[in-house]
Specification:
Structural class: mainly alpha
Number of helices: 8
Radius of gyration: 16 Å
Order of helices and strands: HHHHHHHH
Distance between the termini: 39 Å
Number of domains: 1
Helix content: over 70%
Length: 199
């Protein structure tokens, strides 16, 4: 039961932070680290996908627990550089929405793809997310600070997903906990479908 407050805090942060991010617009003087940090948190598509990576990593356990989040952040930085320099990627928004649907489905199915294939999957999705971050960087932002901001926010969202999954296991013992995590994945996937439908 000691882990339950962490799960509550993660859920509360997921509900509140996007609204906080939308409520703040940054001018030229502060469009660096803070703007980059809030960019992944300010959109449900980014937030859901990044939390889903953490959930999937915790569901799989072992080396995937750190390798999947690390691969996502690394590839996302690469995508961010592409976006910052104006190099186009095809169907970025579709790739972002698809990542929410696919990652949710992988959790719901309790997928056991090989680790190398899983790393390719999360890295490919991360390129789209990173490209969107980079392409939407304010002109006045310092690229390094902006990039550090969105990389840190992403890592924290992965950590929130890992923490939520571990807390869920602590609260709901046995097979029911695993089933609840799969249900959470299904909810994320359906949220991705809703985001596409409402776009």
């Amino acid at each position: 039961m000691k882990r339950f407050p962490l799960a509550s805090a993660v859920l509360l942060a997921g509900l509140v932070l996007p609204a906080v991010a939308d409520a703040h617009t940054f001018g030229a003087h502060d469009a660096g680290f803070a703007h980059g940090f809030l960019h992944p948190i300010g959109g449900w598509d980014h937030l859901l996908a990044m939390v889903a990576v953490g959930l999937w990593a915790a569901q799989r356990g072992g080396a995937a627990l750190w390798a999947l989040p690390a691969a996502f952040v690394t590839a996302m930085i690469g995508g961010g550089l592409l976006g910052m320099t104006g190099i186009e990627l095809p169907a970025v928004e579709l790739g972002i929405a698809g990542s929410v649907i696919a990652l949710g489905a992988l959790i719901a199915a309790q997928s056991r793809l090989s680790l190398p294939v899983s790393l390719v999957v999360v890295s490919a999705f991360a390129l789209f997310h990173g490209h969107a971050h980079g392409a939407e960087m304010p002109e006045a932002a310092q690229p390094l600070l902006y990039g550090l901001g969105f990389a840190l926010a992403t890592a924290l969202l992965h950590g929130a997903g890992v923490g939520a999954a571990l807390s869920l296991r602590g609260v709901v013992r046995g097979g029911t906990g695993a089933l609840a995590l799969r249900g959470l994945g299904a909810a994320i996937g359906l949220s991705g479908v809703a985001l596409v439908a409402l776009a």
